[in-house]
Amino acid sequence: MTDETSTGSGLILAIESSCDETAAAVVERGSHTLSSVVASQIAIHSRYGGVVPELASREHLRNIVPVVRAALDRAGCTLSNLDAIAVTSGPGLAGALLVGISYAKALAYATGKPLLAVNHIEGHIHAVLLEQRQLSATAAADSISQPMPLPALALVVSGGHTHLYLTRQQGSPRDGGWTYQNVGRTVDDAAGEAFDKVAKLLGLGYPGGPWIDGLAPHGNSKAVAFAFAQVKAKLHRPGQRAAMPRFLFSFSGIKTAVLRYVEVHDLQSSIRARHGALAEITSPLLSDVLPLCDAQTLDLIASFQRAVVGDLKRKTFLAAEVLGAHSILVSGGVAANQELRTRFTAEAAKRGMPVAFPSLALSTDNAAMIAAAAWPKLLAGDFAPANLSADPSLALGR
Ligand code: KG4
Ligand code: ZN
To answer: The pTM is what?
Structure first.
């Protein structure tokens, strides 16, 4: 294990380009963010209603150099001040990942700094941990805030993932490696994907989550009843050792149920009108969209969000209880959802279980979370091979 002196000041430059955000950040010792720059491609992809992989790669190529320069400038450092360069190696879009990886490798080679490969999902978990460390550092003097008790159950809920991990730290709290045991996942769509698809179906913009989040409080969430099928997990085959219980999600059914509701209630023409009106506005705001939604559509949106958040909450807290987790960490783009935060916070308070979310800026894709996840790897000397490549379906943990 590398000791503290050989990690210098502990400055890591991280690069993230797994989907539609080009991001770079400089973070000191995995706990102090000096800069975090994100160039969003939402404006490019929104007219197609989803991420177009070829356009994403092209935009990453355009943005990577200025974004990295901005991150270094805002952190007040140069490449020579860094101790390592970290990059997301997967999962994600192959072409998009390759832009970040190639640039990070070139920087590492040119400067002689070590290269660290980070799993994007691990990054999302560390977005919460990074901010909890920052909070506990500022509160240390009056001991108001403590870092999250472990093991923690991490719900990573985004456009590409809905996963549950039992998260532990091995070794001393300062430099131990993190381990992740996958105890739950979606069997079809990710929750964020369901938000995006339902928003598209209703003629709203991309990404759909923020629109649904903003519109839901204006509808009656009890108006439409959505039922979630209980997905049975295969625990183990006869003769095999009993496996960890698995908690499975499924979000493709609710998307079909929304489609059926739209057809049965003849909402298509109002959806077309809404879509057409929004296409005329360059960057629509909630105040532009709200008058374009009738009460029935707002009720549908509110009921959809209530059902999805309810299912995430039920299974996450059940998993935490069954697996003996001491806290819950929620991260990924859907963690920005207001109803999710409110209901998880209320349930956690009822159970006396600490729960933490990243700030809104660190909920969606960013590079500060990649730098935070890279810090224990730097301490452990867990460097990436010279032939590091993109792994679009990289898994996390066992
Ligand atoms: O983590 P992220 O930026 O990228 C992936 O790794 O997928 O997550 C993006 C996803 C999108 O599906 C988006 O609709 C969803 O997060 N999202 C939200 C909210 N903000 C973003 N979903 C619900 N409510 C939100 N406020
Ligand atoms: Zn993500």
So the answer is: 0.92
